[in-house]
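Protein: Serine hydrolase domain-containing protein
Species: Paraphaeosphaeria sporulosa
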Amino acid sequence: MPSTGSKIPSTIPDSTHLPRILCLHGGGVNAAIFKAQSRSLIRHLQHSFRLIWVDGPFFCDPHTDVIQVYGSYAPFRRWLRWLPEHPEIDAETCIDEIGYAIRTAMENDDRDGGQGEWVGLMGFSQGAKLSASLLLEQQARESKAVREGKTKWDVGPIGIPGLNWRFGVLLAGRAPMSNLNPSLLKSQALVSAADLSEGFQFVKEVDDEAILRQPTIHVHGMADAGLHLHRRLYKEYCEQGSTRLVEWEGAHRIPIKSDTVERVVGAIYDIAEQNEIEVSWTVNRRPSWTSATP
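Structure follows.
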């Protein structure tokens, strides 16, 4: 697809008051690597959002895909277990460690001057799975509050009152989602935070409790070996009409070419505006931003 055309301003704005997006890396990398890999997205998004890059709580070996370029970026980290050699951990401790890592990064950014509202989650691979899981956990608490006639919902695993994530950007995100609130979420379509998600025995039909209704953007590489799992997250775990889909001819990595990047950021701007978040468009608008790709 040809480039839609970009109009990136030459001056980078002060991000102090910009709405904030939390950025969650994949397994076997770290925040610095995710930021470096996302450079083409950053060139656009930094004009509308303050991007905060978070390190996962658990150390692990580097992912084989990053050793050649980012081998000197140790230590490498993960959020969840996906290999048998990763040390076993109980679900409650895993959830607490994830929440602590994210809360610490958010509080550090407050101290660094960030004042904008926390509005979105952007993750790659395991970070995308975690982003979707955080949105689902928030959705469950919100639904509980509605059932109980409350106007505010309980504090979630991050431990910061009043958080309201408006959307998620899921770059190569796999099903299933992780259960980040087992006392509230009972669906068998979710994997425990203590368990390996690789080799998960999927249920025949995802029940309503495990279906994400929050707005999400799904970015799928057509040459990605995990594409079938990305499509399951998109088609089976997300409510139809709440999603945007960007497909591109790439493998398991973050897009850097302008045509794909512009489609991704255009979808982000569109979904942000639909959620009453003001953005500065750095790509030309077009009608297809406003509907999901089939």
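Remarks: The chain has one domain: 22-290.
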